[in-house]
Each structure stands twice: as structure tokens, then as C-alpha cells.
Amino acid sequence: MKRLAAVILTASMGLALAGCSGNPYKEGVSQLESKEYKQAEASFKEAVKQDKNTADAYRGIGIACWEQKEYKAALKAFKNAVKAGTKENATLYNLMGGCALKLDDGKSALSYYEKGLAASGSSDELKKEMEYNVIVSYEKMQNWEKAKSKLNEYLEKYPDDETAKKEVEFLETR
């Protein structure tokens, strides 16, 4: 009887441990937290393959790729996350806009930032960042007049932003 109890206990512990280490989504989250981005990317890809938390796994792939400066792959992963049903929020759209800017696609970046600004629940700091990046998006598109107009609106809201003040000087040369 004691031997059977020991076997059951050992088997239960083995299953519990296998359950923890057998979830690639959870492993990916842990690896992201530990800044092990390459490993996290691989774990999240395995989670997608196993259909475990697919939408959030795609978002995890995007974050891992972003941290590795692989912006094309990050943007693709974020788009897949949206298609798979991840919660669309300002943070996600800010990351998507950032990827598009890094890929010199001002038009797409602008679209993502506008969606992010329209999303509810973002912090004032995130809104400020996206509002500034709207200006940068117009600059990428070489739409200098719209960039100047948005910069003036921005400076009315945030008159102490030194970076924006320097941006005025840049736009005056355009």
C-alpha cells in the first residue's frame, strides 16, 4: 500500500512538473521577463504551433522580435495577434506604429498611432508618445505642412517638451 502511494505521489509530481514546463506560452512569458528574447520567441512560436494562447503568443513573438530589433517580424506577429483575437489596445498599436516607423512606412505608422489614440484606457504618457509619433509619421511621409500643424497642436498641449521644440527648428528648414 505504501509502495502504491509512493508511485502515485511520484507520478503526480512528475505530471505537475511536466505541466509547468510543458506550456510553451508560460515559458515564453517567463523568458520575456528574464530578457531571454530569442528563447521567448521560440517558445511563443511553439505555443502557436500547439494552439496554446495563440493570440497572446503572437503578441509575445512580436514583443520578443521588437526587443531584438527585428521590426518586420515583430509587425507581422502583431498583425497575426490582432487576427487571432488579441485585445487591441493603445500599447499594441504604439508598438505596431513603432515597427512601421522603423521600416520607414510613415503611412502605416500614422494609421496605427491613430488607432492607438482612439483606443480607451491608455495612460497620458502613452498618449503623449503617440501624439509625438504622429508628427514623426508625417515627416516620414514628407508631409511637412501636416507635420508642422500637428507639432503646433502638440506644443500647445505640451509646451515644456524640449524635443518637440527642437523639432520646430528641423521643420522650419523644410
UniProtKB/TrEMBL annotation:
TPR repeats: 55-88
SUPFAM superfamilies (UniProt xref): TPR-like
Database matches in PROSITE patterns: PROKAR_LIPOPROTEIN, TPR
Top-rank taxon: Bacteria
UniProt keyword terms in alphabetical order: Signal, TPR repeat
Residue ranges of the TM segments: none
Keyword Signal: yes
Protein name, entry field: Tetratricopeptide repeat protein
Species annotation: Dorea hominis
Lineage of the species this protein comes from: Bacteria, Bacillati, Bacillota, Clostridia, Lachnospirales
